[in-house]
Amino acid sequence: DRRELQRRLDVEKWIDGRLEELYSGMEADMPDEINIDELLELESEEERSRKIQGLLKSCGKPDFIQELLAKLQGLHRQPGLRQPSPSHDGSLSPLQDRARTAHP
Fold first, then answer.
1. By three-state DSSP, how is residue 84 classified?
2. Contact at 8 Å (CB) between 30 and 23?
3. pLDDT tens, 27-69?
4. Can you tell me the distance from the alpha carbon of 75 to that of 71, in angstroms, rounded to the nearest whole number?
5. Does domain 2-101 have CATH number 1.10.150?
6. What is the Cα Rg of the chain in Å?
7. What whole-number distance in Å separates Cα of residue 41 and Cα of residue 43?
8. Cβ–Cβ contacts within 10 Å for residue 50, how many?
């Protein structure tokens, strides 16, 4: 449904924006990706929290984790939703991909 897709897009944009803030000047430490579907597959918020903490080990911002967990509530997995990246390098996060393909 369209509302669900918009909500998911909003969460993905929020994640990208917050990661830019949290890792400003430390882009090499930024996680490659925070996969919403992988988080939604986990059984509990505790498991999701541990997974996010593992991805953000160099960040140390518990507020981000709590905010992300709150935003995930009510979202559902969307198999096949991911779009190909502009650089066609699936190993890059959307943020890294945009930086790589941005024109100077």
1. coil
2. yes
3. 888 888 888 889 889 989 889 988 888 888 766 666 787 888 8
4. 8
5. yes
6. 14
7. 6
8. 13
